[in-house]
Amino acid sequence: MMEIGIGLLIIAIGSFGQSSSYVPINKVRNWSWESFWLIQGVFAWLVFPCLGAMMAVPEETSLLELWCSPGSVKAVFYGMLWGVGSLTFGLSMRYLGVALGQSIALGTCAGFGTLFPALFGGMDLLRGDGLTLLIGVCITLAGIAVIGYAGSLRARNMSEEEKRAAVKDFALTKGLAVALLAGVMSACFNLGLEAGGEVLAKAKAMGASDLLALNPVILLVTLGGFCTNAVYCLFLNVRNGTGKDYFSVSGATFLNNVLFCALAGLLWYSQFFGLGMGKSYFVDSPVMLAFSWSILMSLNVIFSNVWGILLKEWKGADRRTIGVLVAGMCVLIFSLLYPNIV
After folding, report:
1. How far apart are CA 246 and CA 258, in angstroms?
2. Which of 20, 41, 89, 262 supports an S-S bond with 182, CB 3.0-4.6 Å?
3. Are 83 and 226 in contact (CB under 8 A)?
4. CB neighbours of 12 closer than 8 A, spacing ≥ 6?
């Protein structure tokens, strides 16, 4: 039980970092969405994952040697699909705000990202550990649904002016559609991690620390995601004439923007760095290993709603709406504990 508690704590720390990663973006000035998204992606999906992967590489070997394993190409491919989810994930927060946008997208991602690998791995979801996993995911989705209902209550009871004050580009219908697409495609990240299982096994066999051994696989997935995002952002730079963003700002503003994009990238990557470390404490619990993805997504939703409250995105919501929001967060907290109490 102590091992599981340590693993949960590590994942929670990483999750808090991810949920905080969109706060520094508010400090980026005079850059279009596609410009800052690309630069923060350089740090989130290339620089820091590469550093994390290098920390895991055993002596007298290399990343390329680890990647010469079955599943590497598939991990990159799933990463490219996840990249679509990453793009729409950013848009979901543009239209719904940090709290509601992350809640809907991450809830969908939690369900698909947890159950698909279990099904592909041959787990029976109707009995034993499989049933425990299925119930845990259902509890997670119930918590997400309650939080989503709180968001709809907020939208229903607020004037257009109040909505714009909380979230500049608020659009509930468009935001929900984008968030659902983001969640389904983002689930491919966990499929990519599963596809890279032989890379993980090879890293451990060659002496990589259990705490860091997943990092080379994470880099494969984020590399695929970066490709998707870079192509789209550069396309928008050309179409919208925003390629000049990188050169038209003053030196001080450019440095400010790069530093805050780097901070956002570091905070975002911390969730997967923490996931890899946390999962190493679940080796004696197959259910917790399978449920770890859902745990990460649940924590991301909880912390993102805390940030939503701090950023006053729920300002103007009535007592009933706040009560529903808190109830949803409590259900999510229970979902984290459920696999250990059955």
Report:
1. 10
2. 89
3. yes
4. 274, 299
Cα(94)–Cα(287) distance, integer angstroms: 35
* Dihedral angle sign, alpha carbons of residues 55, 61, 64, 65: negative
Does an H or E element contain 91, and which? helix 72-120
Nearest to 173 by CA among 200, 155, 196, 158: 155
- pLDDT tens digits, residue range 239-254? 999 999 988 888 899 9
Q: Return d(Cα 237, Cα 232) in angstroms, integer.
A: 9
CA angle 43, 288, 278 (to 5 degrees): 35
Distant-in-sequence, close-in-space partners of 64: CB < 8 Å, separation ≥ 6: none
CA distances from 88 to 47, 179, 198 (A): 22, 7, 30
* pLDDT tens-digit readout, 228-238: 999 999 999 99
CA dist 35 and 31 (Å) reads 6
- The tokens describing 282, both together, are 């679940």
How many angstroms separate the CA atoms of 13 and 277, rounded? 11
> Given this model, what pLDDT does residue 266 score?
96
What pTM value is reported for the model? 0.85
Two tokens, residue 93: 């927060």
